[in-house]
From TrEMBL:
This is Single Cache domain-containing protein. The keyword Membrane applies. It is a multi-pass membrane protein. The keyword Membrane applies. InterPro entries: sCache_2.
Length: 279
């Protein structure tokens, strides 16, 4: 199945409901405003609006655009690269693990207002698969949607990934460390990644983006400005089972040195850490 198509429909299949105040304010407001504009236009023009949604024009705002699917799974309009699939029943090309969830989502009752979801999507500006947030609403037999890209992960996502790694280590140490080092198992998510330190030896045993650090001395790690990072984090772990530490580090997505807020937690003799970035 086409990767772009699969990611398109993940907004309805796997998207988790969130509140508006967790979204990136400027982008969220712009995406929601574009959807509200499209909803008004559709309510005034009915299906005649579908052609306008598929043209390069007022319903495209940078990398934000309107797309519409009906409750039978047919793509009716898109201002983005999936426009080539207009008129196709895309539910038939989904894998069996996604098909039932898709049918359940498009069968949701009308009248629930604008809803939200998170999913992963290929950004047609840079070709990268990135985290995206979407606003969508059902109107009759149509579901109108607009999404936008999230440049950085949230604190909640960082803590969730850390906890996922801790739970995985408890169940299968060797398999989890191997998965982290081989970029498998979902331990690398956009600018979020896991690293693990053996508290007995104070050495890295796994790192989600830089294998050159594995087996090196974590206590000697410093930030790009020469300030200690490993030593104070180890001191923190000597006093408590989990905590937080702020420092400067290179963001693997933007390639820039940014502020990083790391969440660290013990799992036996391992220290598990995941951090999120901010400008």
């Amino acid at each position: 199945m086409n990767t772009l198509l699969r990611l398109t429909w993940l907004l309805l299949l796997c998207g988790s409901q969130v509140h508006a105040d967790t979204a990136s304010d400027a982008d969220a407001q712009a995406a929601k405003a574009l959807l509200e504009k499209a909803l008004v236009y559709y309510q005034n023009n009915g299906d005649k609006a579908l052609a306008a949604f598929s043209r390069q024009g007022e319903f495209i705002d940078q990398d934000r655009y309107v797309f519409v699917v009906d409750t039978k799974g047919v793509l009716l309009a898109s201002g983005g690269p999936s426009s080539a699939l207009i008129g196709r029943d895309v539910s038939t090309v989904l894998g069996p693990e996604l098909r039932d969830s898709f049918k359940h989502a498009i069968g949701a009752p009308e009248g629930q207002g604008i809803q939200q979801a998170d999913y992963r999507w290929q950004n047609w500006n840079d070709g990268k698969v990135e985290h995206k947030h979407v606003f969508y609403q059902r109107v009759g037999e149509r579901i109108l949607a607009v999404g936008y890209y999230l440049p950085r992960a949230t604190p909640e996502q960082a803590r969730a990934l850390r906890n996922k790694a801790v739970n995985a280590l408890v169940k299968d140490e060797a398999g989890t460390l191997k998965a982290i080092n081989s970029l498998a198992g979902g331990f690398l998510q956009d600018d979020l990644y896991v690293f693990v330190v053996d508290l007995d030896t104070q050495r890295y045993v796994a790192h989600g983006t830089d294998l050159r650090l594995v087996n090196t001395d974590f206590a000697k790690v410093k930030d790009p400005d020469g300030r200690p990072v490993g030593e104070p984090i180890l001191a923190l772990m000597g006093e408590q089972d989990q905590g937080e530490y702020k420092y400067r580090w290179k963001n693997p997505v933007t390639g820039k040195v940014e502020n990083k807020h790391a969440y660290v937690r013990k799992a036996g003799h391992w220290m598990v850490a995941v951090g999120y970035y901010s400008p």
